Amino acid sequence: MLTLAIRYSIEPQHADEALRLSEERYALAVNGANDGIWDWDLRGGDVYYSERWHKILGFDDQLPATINTWTDRIHDDDKADFNRELEAHLAGNSSHFSHEYRIRTKSSEFIWVLSRGIAVTDHDGQCVRMAGSITDISPRKRAEEQLIHDALHDHLTGLPNRNLMIDRLGHAIERIRDSDREMHTIEFAVLFLDLDRFKNITDSLGHSIGDVLLNLIASKLGEITRPGDTVARLGGDEFAILLSDVNSLSEVTHFADRVLAECAMPVKIKSHEICTTVSIGIALGTEQYTSSHEVLRDSDLAMYWAKSEGKDCYQIFDREMHSRVVKQQRLELELRQAVEKKEFVINYQPIVSLTSKSMVGFEALIRWNHPLRGLVGPNEFISTAEETGLIVPLGWWTLLEACKQAKQWQQDFSSEQPLSISVNISGKLFNHPDMMTNLRRILRETRLPPSSLRLEITESVLLDHAEESVAKLDEMRNLGVGLHVDDFGTGYSSLSYLQKFNYDTLKIDRSFVNQMVNNNGSSAIVQSIIALGKLLHMNIIAEGVENREQLERLKKLGCPQVQGYLFSKPLDTNTATRLLASPIQYSSTYVM
Ligand code: C2E
Ligand code: MG
Ligand code: MG
């Protein structure tokens, strides 16, 4: 018969009636309780386990009433803690015994339980019995584990997230500190990955395709890493890989090459074949690192560098990168302010016809009128303007200014063949949804005849969205605008592209013209571009003509138009206006 006093000592003078009521109440509570009950006679050694106690552990039948029935089932990893807590309570050091641990059930699985109990002492203060409950807390523990898992994993790919990466990196750094290897040996490496042009993919194909792509990349990365490594998704299209046990730089670069190759393999999602590449920044784990954040920061910086080196490559972090990145960030900031303050001017370089021996138009070339540095050339800021999107406001501004100026010149200096203006159009601008609307608006506002405007586009600009590009080029053409392939010969030019894209002029890149006198290869390229142009009924402009030999060669090959320092450098508006006002002085017939 069970008797459990909720007090700390037994009082023999209890009245029989009171005892009976108490026992009844207690029996009811035991049977009705969701928790299992145990009652341990510390002197005799027997333990009473209630029916519910057995049920929680999956038993229908009675188990031996010994303490080992219970303690033998406790998970090995939890035994020491359990014993410590129990002993503390029996020694009178805690008012309650309360402990969570894992216990083995009949089916040999472990479940989480909470045991609570209280010891009862006799008059001498000796513990004579201890009784309490056991509660199945597995559902709560599962929920807790899920919460912890969610807090440490990315919900889309199931990969570890930034938090877990930081944690694992912390352990890797600690291992270095504890190891006695030589200074500067590489112990681990972090690869910071960012997909190239991921935004283009989600913008054109939608977010669900983007999500599938991220999952595919996640599993590719999982396949090529070893069990001790960590692949994490840091957010968006950023991943990180911790190679936890590396011995040499070549091991790391070899792995990075593999990642580049794997990621560059086209994948098919629904009906789309998607080609993507990644840019990778690498930080090498040596004793110089004291925190995970430093490692991630440096690999991120190196990734940023890989992007600016043309993407689809890796860069290893070095200290100098820091100052270069700071410089780059300063440039971005200054450029942003310059766009707001409109600190730009356009220079105009004449384009000359060798057949009519006259100037037929200008190419508009932007310059940044920097308050301290003076005129800064586009090669120093156009790519940054592209990356930051600043090229868009800058591009609209250039287009408007150049058209306005061309119209002004046409009005002031009428000629048989109206003067044309060529404007460079960057990829971001060409692909901008407002491109056509703004182009029409600018032509309308400036009243420049569309046939006087030539848009210079490089072929690489069109490759990403070939189908849409063809449609857009057709629209431009229908508007009457001229289309020039800039830097022809340096990109992916192929005959099929030329036909597909429907250009009217090829501009031979300066690098070929530059070398044509000394280098037979370049000369042959120039010759074939001119032949190709004729075949496709396209106009040809040779860029970068600097001397008479080049000019003579080009004339011989039948090149119709030229542009270069031999005729004129790009000119500011006033000088260009003066040139138009006195063409005789300019035309330098000796040159032609
Ligand atoms: P590009 O369109 O191929 O322009 C021709 C470049 O060659 C210009 O450089 C011009 O000054 C230079 N050049 C012309 N003749 C000669 C020559 O005889 N010898 C040498 N060494 N160079 C010559 P610039 O003005 O520095 O422009 C560089 C590039 O920047 C341009 O190449 C173009 O791609 C880009 N760019 C210029 N203005 C704009 C713009 O408004 N928008 C965009 N998106 N890009 C621009
Ligand atoms: Mg150009
Ligand atoms: Mg060019």
Largest beta-sheet details: 8 strands, mixed, barrel
Radius of gyration: 39 Å
Strand order of the largest sheet: 13-14-16-17-18-19-20-21
Hetero ligands: ligand C2E, magnesium ion
Approximate shape: elongated
Q: How much of the polypeptide forms β-strand, as a percent range? A: 15-25%
Our count of helices gives: 23
Helix content: 40-55%
Alpha carbon gap, first and last residue:
123 Å
Give average pLDDT, whole number. 90
Structural class assignment: alpha/beta
Uncertain segments: 1-10
* Extended strand count: 21
Task: Describe how the helices and strands are arranged.
Layout: H1 16-32, E1 36-41, E2 47-49, H2 51-56, H3 67-71, H4 76-90, E3 97-104, E4 110-121, E5 127-136, H5 138-152, H6 162-178, E6 188-195, H7 198-205, H8 207-224, E7 230-235, E8 238-243, H9 249-264, E9 267-269, E10 272-274, E11 278-285, H10 292-308, E12 314-316, H11 319-341, E13 344-353, E14 358-370, E15 374-376, H12 382-388, H13 391-412, E16 420-424, H14 427-430, H15 435-446, E17 453-458, H16 459-463, H17 466-479, E18 482-488, H18 495-501, E19 505-508, H19 510-515, H20 520-535, E20 539-542, H21 548-557, E21 561-562, H22 573-581, H23 583-587
Helix pairs in contact: 6-10, 7-8, 8-9, 13-15
Bound molecules: ligand C2E and magnesium ion (2 copies).
Ligand C2E is lined by residues 349, 365-366, 377-379, 382, 398, 424, 426, 456, 486-487, 510, 543-546, 563-565, 570.
